[in-house]
Amino acid sequence: MQIRFGYWMVLVFGLLTGCSESNRRQARIPAAPQSPAAIERGAALESLTRAINQSGPASAYAKRAAIYLKAGQLDTALADINEALDRDDDIGRYHLIKAQVLRSRHQYDDALESALRAEGLGVDTPELYILIGDLLQEQREFDRARIYLVKALQMAPYEGEAFYYNGLVVAKTGDTVRALPFLRRSLQLKPRYLEPYVQLAAIYAARRDLPVAFTYNNVGMRYFPNNPWLLYTRGVIYQQMYKSDSAYQFFQRAIQLQPTLYQAHFQAGLVCLKWRSSAQALQHFDQVVKQDPNFPRVRYYMAVGYEQTGQWDQAINSFAAALQADPANQQARYGLWRVQRRQMGYGGGNSYDEQSYEFSRPGEVLDTTRVRVKTIQPKSRFSLDSTRN
To answer: pLDDT digits over 263-293, tens only?
Structure first.
């Protein structure tokens, strides 16, 4: 194989050295063509940069910031919009752009301050009101959020994003039944809209309507095949179908695409506990704790993993932490008693009653790291008995 490879290298080298300079230029592989949007963006950036270098007008900085924001270059966008505001702080549109940049950077309090400043300076657009509605629901000020979102729909009755955030606010108050028409309408108006696919699939999975959940997830994955939240939701659906192998594969794919997706780590950890792969489960739970130390019941399941591997001190500490977080957790209380007896050599006692873990409290909508999605989390169907080592 090496001889044949060397032969071809010699042959190719001879052909190349035998070509004329013009032939070599013709033989070069052309660069991949840019899309019209990329060409237009590049031309606009070049023109704005030239204007900035000549006279530095605030408007040029603001326009360039908007382009950088759309391209996902958030640090550069923030630097530009701050330059624009340093030159002219009384233009509402500049504050709107800054609010959009800050929201993308997950700086929600500062983003709301900028958005309200834009409103105070006379910006009166559906875009601003949707933004304010989103930022208010982020602070769980649902009544105020609805006021702005209703105002956005009055101005733009066919704006799919406004319907989505209306549905999101209703879902966050625990009324998923009323949320569903808003979310479905958002997709009718905007079929290539990621967030409603994630939300609808999760809600229907939580309601045990798995065929509908799978349908929304499947359509969403046709548009966004490598979106970690859609992959995660597909894993949750397979959990509900008791197909833990398939569920784990999708959780792993989601984690590969977004390693900080701690919800996927949590569910993957539950699968590993079911398989009695306790060390692997603990690795997943450790990632959850790093991202969100107060994630519901993660300390309890870490304790189960430690108990399964005979790490009594770590199990005791984790059961105690689970009880501190939720004094009503009887499983954690019995687990602590059981492990203490085992540590003293008295045996483990009877196994606790197996029961499914509810992933979220009723009406809770957990952060999805701002795709921007807030997902109603379904229940986990996995039951555990940590005493069978």
So the answer is: 999 999 999 999 999 999 999 999 999 999 9
- Element (DSSP H or E) covering residue 241: none
Classify residue 327 by its DSSP letter.
T
List the end-to-end C-alpha distance of the chain, in Å, as a whole number.
Answer: 51
Q: What share of the chain is helix, strand, coil (3-state, %, to 5)?
A: 70, 0, 30
Classify the phi-psi angles of 125: left when phi > 0, otherwise alpha if psi is within -120 to 50, otherwise beta: beta
Q: Are 60 and 52 in contact (CB under 8 A)?
A: yes
Q: Name residues whose C-beta falls within 8 Å of residue 102's C-beta, 6 or more positions apart in sequence.
A: 78, 108, 110, 111, 114
Question: Which pTM value belongs to this model?
Answer: 0.75
Task: Give Rg (Cα) of the chain.
Answer: 27
One DSSP character per residue, 183-217 reads HHHHHHH-SS-HHHHHHHHHHHHHTT-HHHHHHHH
Q: Residue 345 corresponds to which tokens in the numbers above?
A: 């050599």
